[in-house]
# Entry
Amino acid sequence: MRVQLALNVKDLDEAVEFYSKLFDVEVNKRKPGYANFAIDKPPLKLVLFENPDADERLNHLGVEVFDDADVHAATDRLKSAGLVDSVEDEQTCCYANQNKVWAVDPQGARWEYYRIIEDSETFGTGGDFEASAKVATGCCS
# Structure
């Protein structure tokens, strides 16, 4: 398990260079308008969306898990607590097919528990990066 931080950035090349140096790691996945880092120390999934017109720097937060049982357990726990905003099974988002559950905190920050099933060559289910990435509520939902 690792925490995910997804940021809107003005210049993706500049941000990739900075975060590569900051965490002393190479970019894990790089696509048009999108990059992510899988950092071991500290355990962090850093996701960058090139979105120069975004009102907020924070896109969304998440917890990446590596087993569907963990996604299902989070879904059950969040449903019991009345916190589930949406559930997405086998949906393509951020160049990966994923299972996930979303919750929204009291101030509107979106959180996801998710597992990557496999990589994808398209950004989202619709395949349109510009439309998908600029959704104010975060990622592909």
Summary: Confidence is low (pLDDT under 50) at residues 127-137.
